[in-house]
Amino acid sequence: MVYGKEGYNMPLPSFHYHEPASLVEACRMLASFGEKGILMAGGTDLLVKMKSREVQPENIISLTQLKEINRISFTDNHLTIGAGCTISQIAESAVICSAFPALASGAEHLGSPTVRNMGTIGGNIMTASPAADLPPALMAYGASVRLKSNNQERFLPLEQIFCSPGVTCIKENEILADIHIEKPQEMSGAGFFKLGNRKALQISIINGACYVALNPENGKIQTSRIVLGAVAPIPIRAVSAEEVLMGQKPCADLFEKAGKAAALGCKPIDDLRGSAEYRKDMVGVLTRRTLLSAFEQIERT
Amino acid sequence: MKQTIELSINQQAYTIDIEPHITLLDMLRNELELLGTKRGCEKGDCGTCTVLVNGKPVNACLYLAVRANGKEILTVEGLETDAGLHPLQKGFLEKGAVQCGFCTPGMLMASVSLLDENPTPTEKEVRTAISGNLCRCTGYQHIVDAILSVQEKG
After folding, report:
1. I need a labelling partner for B9 at 20 to 30 A (CA). Which of A60, A102, A160, A188 fits?
2. CA A148, A151, A156, A158 torsion: positive or negative?
3. Between the CA of residue B101 and those of A251, B135, B136, B143, what are the distances in Å?
4. Do residues A114 and A213 both lie within one domain?
5. Do A48 and A128 belong to one domain?
6. pTM summary value
7. What is the ipTM of this complex?
8. Do residue A174 and residue A199 come from a single domain?
9. Contact B63/A43, CB-based, under 8 Å?
């Protein structure tokens, strides 16, 4: 067999494979293997890194068969998404499509149908790619995550867990169990954008999500969250753009100003997918458009 | 260390001892000599290794064989029955949707799954369903025509 120059097309290195029957057992395994163990969810990212020998774990702890983290539930206006839910499950969920359209859109545009059938929301978060498609939408909705370890569990806002490309602040013995989002208030809207060279299987040149909520009494913007991906080492909030919106009446001019502020406030890099200058320009355009579509959602309801 | 898995492939029961680092693609091709499923990019980008696991299309190159324990696998070899070729296979032949043929097994499996869930897709839905399958002979139009032709016949 001829192997590719870049190291692709190599068979997987060998490893021990473990399928814990519960999250508790998975935590115990992770603690006992320490650095010699790695968690696998959908495998769409991990196995590619193993084929190129970027990662060579001794033990793989597979989370795919854990039914307890495979469910989407919506009770008392609180959405819980198990970390093991596939991207397809999220894109097809009736409650997510109706109440959390920006998240549904992020899921729908991720990878390809086959990748969406294997890849999971937990994997998309924990891989911590700066261009990951779900974190911007999740952060725009103010999502938090539940982290489980052998002897405790804790909740953290999602936006606090990313450190640098591929690295999260989650402790080595912790497993992302589920993602929590409160139903957005009345008079709110949200949208997602993704810019790539083609419609499928593309790593985003930039992506992002916007959430806007109005004060029902005076119609002015009282909450906004604008999140940008692929313009920094981690997904970031466009704070200066959010400040432009705060307390103002929504209108096309205002969204234009917010877009400009988002573009000025981010510091993307040049890489093979796009130049820094192009990214900044597109942040301005797509933030403006997405704010407008979020506002149109409010007007429709 | 080898693990024993029990699974169904093309409606036939198998018990197989397999190393955990062997992908479903390698098990199908090397252990079972089911060579219809093609090896392409090996990283989930080209879709030519697409098979159905419990009715859902996945990239067999990124799916560990041990994960298929207890699952039902359908490969392109399972499409033909005693009654003859699958309607999609006939459609591909009639519409000239095959040039070099390397993407064909993946295209067929992606579209089988689409028609199982949605027997009357629009052209847009067909194009979305095969959006993870690359054809480098640029034959997408004929492939889309072939998939759409199946429903026309009812």
Report:
1. A60
2. negative
3. 53, 9, 10, 11
4. no
5. no
6. 0.94
7. 0.95
8. no
9. yes
